[in-house]
Every structure is written in C-alpha cells, then in structure tokens.
Amino acid sequence: MAEEKETKAAEAAEVVVTEAKKEGKDAPEAEKTKNPVEESPVAVIEGMDKKVSSTEEVTTAETDAAIQQSVSFKEESNLVGDLQEPEKKALDELKQLIQIALAKNDFNPPPPPAPPAPKSDDPKPDETPAVESKPVETLAVDPKAEDPVATADQPASADPKVEKPVPVELAEDPPKAEELAAVVEPPEDTTVVKAVVDEDGAKTVEAIEETIVPVTPAPPPAGEVSSAATVTETVAAPELVPEPEFIWGVPLVGDEKSDTVLLKFLRARDFKVKDALAMIKNAVIWRKQFGIEKLLEEDLALPELEKVVFYHGQDKESHPVCYNVYGEFQNQELYAKAFSDDEKRDKFLRWRIQFLEKGIRQQLDFSPKGVSSMVQVTDLKNVPGPGKKELRQATKKALALLQDSYPEFVAKQVFINVPWWYLAYNRVMSPFFTQRTKSKFVFAGPSKSAETLFRYIAPEHVPVQYGGLSKENDSDFSSSDAVTEVVIKPSSKHTIELPATEPSLLIWELRVLGWDVSYSAEFVPSAEDSYTVLVQKARKFTATDEPFVKSSFKVGEPGKIVLTIDNAATKKKKLLYRSKTKNTTDSA
After folding, report:
1. Which part of the chain is the CRAL-TRIO domain (predicted)?
2. 554 within 8 A of 581, measured Cβ to Cβ
3. pTM
C-alpha cells in the first residue's frame, strides 16, 4: 500500500512539473518573483494529476507526519531607522525615481489604440484626390516686362496684360516673439501661377518665378527694448506641480505612511529599485484601468459569498485574519451563482478585489509602527477538484492580479485540513518559491488544524468551527475574555475550580478538541453544613456532539464550581475553557 501511494504521488508530481512547463514556469527564477498573497487552493489543484482519486483515503497520522514546516517567517520593521544601509539607499533612490515619474506623468494609462486603418477603397489620409485638369492656353512672358509684384517702394507694371496686385497693409505693431520664432525659411525659388485677362476678355495663365528673401527685422534703437522681448520677460510659463498618486489611500511620496507602501514593493523585488518602480507603475495604472475607487462604492450584493471569504479576529501579533473556505463551492446553487457564465465570473472577481480593498483600508495601518499585513487561513476541506474549470479560471485570474498588485500583504499563510495529495504538490513546487515565500507557509492535516491555528491565533479569536471559542453575537463572552488552554494526559482526570465569594451569576464555557471524554460539574459551598449541588451529571461527549458547552449557575452563598473532565482515552486531549462572574442585578 505504501509503495502504491508513493507511485501515485510521484505521478502527480510529474504532472505538476509538466503543467508548469507548459505555462512557461519551468524557470525557478520566474517563479521566485511570485508573492503568496491570497494563495488560491483551486489554482494549486490545477496542477495536480487528474488521475488521482480524491476518494482514496490515507490515515490522518500519515498525512500530519508527512507535512514539513519551513523556517518561520519573521516580519521586518517598517521604521526607516531599523533598515540596513543598502535598504535605506534603495528606498531613497526609489523616492527620487517616483518624483521623476510623477513629473513625466508615467503613472497614467497609455493612450487608447489608434483607429483601424481605412479600407483599400478609401483614399489614404496623406493622399490628395486627383483633380481633373483642363487644357489651358499659355502666354509667353515678355522678358523685358517688369516684375509684376508690387512693393511699397516700386510701382506696379504698366503692362495691361499684368494684373495689378492688391496692396498689403503692414501692421503698425512689431511682430511678437512667438511669431518671429514661428517663421520658417521659404524655398529660394517659387513658381506662382496667375490668371490674366486679355484685352478681348480671354483668360490665360502665366507662370511667374519669384525669388523670396526672408526679412530680418531691424534691431531696435539703442536704449530701447523691443516689445517681443518685453512679452518674453513678463509672461513666464507657470511651474507645473505634478498631481499626487495614491494607492490604498496613501500617497506614493510625501507622507509618513508612504515608506511602508514603498517598502512592500521593494521587498517583493529583493530591493531592486528599477524592478520595484516598474511594479509600482503597473499597479497604479491597473488600479486606474480597473476603477478601484469606483469599485469601493459599488453594491455587488453577493451575501452568499460571506461564508466563502471572511475576516474574523486577529492573531497574537494583532494581524487581522482572513479565512478562505472554498469547500463551500460544493454547493451547486452557490457555484452556479458565482461561476455559471462570464458575467458572473467577472462579478466574482470584482467582489473579491473589492473585499480585499475594503479589508486593507479598514483593518490595516500603514504608519511605520502599524500593522500593514494580514494572516491568511485557507481551509482545504472538501475543496473542489480540477473538474470545476470555471472556478479554476476565476481564481487563477484573481491570483495573478493579487500577485502583481498587492505585494507583501501576507504575514502568514496557514493551510488547514490539508489532504494527502496536496503534499505531492508541495514537495514538487517548493523549489520554485523563494525562502522568504516558503517561510510564510504553514501546513496542517485535519487532526492538527486547531492546534496549529492556536500557535498563531489565540483560541478566543478562532471561530468555533475551527476549534476555538469565538462566536458571532455572543452576549456573554467576547475576544477580550481570554481562554485557558490545558493538556489532559491520557487516562487521567482534570478538575477546574471557579471560585464564587458572593452571590452572583457564574458563567463558563469549555470544549475538548475531539471530545471522547466525560464531563461533569457541581457547586461546592464553603460552609461545612451546606450540601453540594450537582450542576451537570457526568456525560460522555464524542466527536459528533456539539463543539462546546456553555453553562451558568446562580450562586447564593460563598463556594466554588468544580468542573471535572475525565480522559479515559489513550491520547492526550486539548481543553479550552473560560468563565465570567456577573452580579445578580446585572443578570436580572
């Protein structure tokens, strides 16, 4: 059986490599520029061997044992004073290049493409339609005749065959500077064709050769300044101030939050300044073309997707946590609403980008000491396989946009409920990722998912469905009420004592991961002559029972609540509990 599993894993790995080469990803250097933002499990599944059956099972212990964790990622500081000298130099250089790019309007989208070329039947723009010429009689010009062009000092020719030119009035004001600059030197010889009327009324055409000499205006008298110079001196071109460019509501330069934004792009490109600048330009231009600012105001009305992607709580370092539950798309009705045609897939993409943009602006802080990244938790339980091509296409397109335009927004990427076949993909694709990217990945099999989450997220922030005690609309407890974690050894009992010194209402809740234990509760008064009150008789809880227990007891005299958990199994258990005391007046 073990050899058969290894063979299938190898086949899956081989197909992954083949698919990667088909897409031009056979070079590790190309893959190393990828950013693990919003890593989609559906895009991951795309490379898996379609021959591998998703119904074949492997024991949970084998799956969890096969998962190898990378060295944990440690997020860098965004304070300029904490940067190394080469990093400071790169940041300063990037700021200068952005200022130059702003002055050149390099952050604007390219102009629209030129209109299509005209058809062959239509005349080309630079071609002038031929005009039908009529034969005319020509008249030889008498070489002794005077130049028919009149000037201010020379009278026109008296020859009746030559038409008198119309006198030209000279402007009184001297030419302006811009008019003088616009004078283009004419050709030396120009042939002028003029219509001439004979004495008998017949029209003839004669060609007259003219010699045009450019006229240079005389310099002004000594001590005087020409009006052209005066205009040049008095009318100065206003200095153009480039408009600021914003991304996620933060200007690229000139704000204390700008450094945090620029450092994201620099780190995504290993502090290669020109590559980071190109990435910023592309991101800003894409945001304008996609219409991000207008998208934030749109009402896309997709409440069905609130269970697919949602924010819940924060990790132990105050990063907001985003959960991706693609197994929800096993619901055929939901799948059809999101991906049945191109219009719906485009709407899903816009919703996904809108969801991320709102989360960035509402939950992240780009100040130097703020939290500017998040934790992504991806649940691979029941995730759709390669057969859902519409989902693959949509998530692949979304992933490409997120990688290019949202760098360094993931502090940790946690995959939970990882199936055995995913391990083959992880082993094959691992060499294609940088150490920085791999250090952000965390994998956990089904039996280790909750405990893995607790390494990074406190149980009071983990949703109930993932092993924690965080619930929506809980009137008794909130995320500010800390949860205590206890490990119960095999074949042993653990007791919890909750003291009550005065009349009050005592509330508690607890859960044991995987249950398979017995639980009981009783109130023990402090007075020796009082009786013990049984609150909860011993009950055996299994894995299929409710995930947690919440109880309360109204205390009328000093004493304590004693909770007993009996672990008769041969495996250790994780116990979570918390309690709260309320005044009887408040509870009423």
Report:
1. 298-474
2. no
3. 0.71
